[in-house]
Design a protein that fits this description.
This protein is mainly beta. Helices cover 14% and strands 36% of the residues. Strand 5 and strand 6 (128-129) form a beta hairpin.
Length: 177
């Protein structure tokens, strides 16, 4: 084979490989193509509706020492109770209160359940008498957002009320509507 024939066979191959290498270097390779995959992200947040009650007098509503008059009813000073509701339910709720055990002394003498009164956010608000049935204390907004309320409790002392240490049970409940 002459040298021209040999060069004509070799040089086209070299040119072909050079062009192929240049095209391969400039063109995106199969690994450089974009590939996407969708992955769902999931988180579960537990529903919660909670109530925290904090009397200014500690763990209980303690009116302290009160005096009975032989002829006139007396009204105690207010005891402030902070009520906090946490809700992530996204719907309204209401808070009720109920005197489940009337205020009774050691001798078994009781104050009427209506003797305990409450007002929300200000002692000057209209005071609502409690009773043995649950009474609505307040209702949330339409979205059921968490809230803080201050409730002032008062005690009516009727004329001639028997002496003694009176104890009862007040239950506050938060209920989703």
């Amino acid at each position: 084979m002459n040298s021209y024939a040999r060069h004509s066979l070799i040089f086209p191959r070299i040119r072909f490989f050079a062009v192929l290498i240049a095209i391969t270097a400039l063109a995106p390779s199969a690994g450089a193509e974009s590939v996407s995959q969708t992955v769902d992200v999931v988180a579960t947040i537990e529903p919660e509706l909670s109530l925290t009650v904090a009397p200014q007098t500690g763990r209980e509503i303690d009116f302290g020492t009160l005096y009975s008059s032989p002829t006139e009813p007396r009204l105690s000073d207010p005891i402030r109770v902070d009520v906090h509701v946490f809700s992530n339910l996204g719907r309204p709720y209401h808070v009720t209160h109920q005197l489940t055990r009337p205020l009774t002394n050691e001798a078994g003498m009781s104050l009427s359940p209506e003797a305990l009164r409450a007002s929300v956010n200000s002692p000057a608000d209209v005071m609502d008498h409690l009773g043995r049935q649950p009474r609505t204390l307040f209702v949330s907004d339409a979205r059921g957002r968490s809230t803080d309320q201050t409730v002032s409790y008062h005690l009516d002392i009727p004329p001639g009320q028997a002496s003694g240490r009176y104890r009862g049970t007040l239950v506050l409940t938060v209920t989703a509507l």
